[in-house]
Amino acid sequence: MNLIYAYMHKLLVDYAQAVVSVYRNKIIECLTQYKVAAKLIRLIGLTLINTGARVMINNEYTKEFKIEARGKQGERLSATLFSSVVDIILKQRDLGGNISTRLKQCSVYADDILIVTRTKQSLIDTFQELKISHYILD
Question: Which residues partner with 66 through β-bridges?
């Protein structure tokens, strides 16, 4: 039996507030790409647009302010919405598959992305690709 040894470079990207880091319009765009029913997309969209918040300081609330670009953390759909966005990103960048036959691979679980590559430079390049995907905020 012949054994083949290969060096692997790994990077785990952990989004502390996954859905908060995704542009809202991109969430809707991804749901459309998945061919989710239009009615359901509209319902999800209603929870994402025209939302506001107030902060309590010294037992008094501030004026309400609009939340513009980001999704809401802690909602029941948050992990699913984030996963669908990341899945679309990985498909567009062709980052799925099996590392034994590829130079790079990404795996997603909940709010974590694991990048596995065969070279250090490929790891850096793949991470940069994910950063500039225009779906996830910096």
Answer: 52
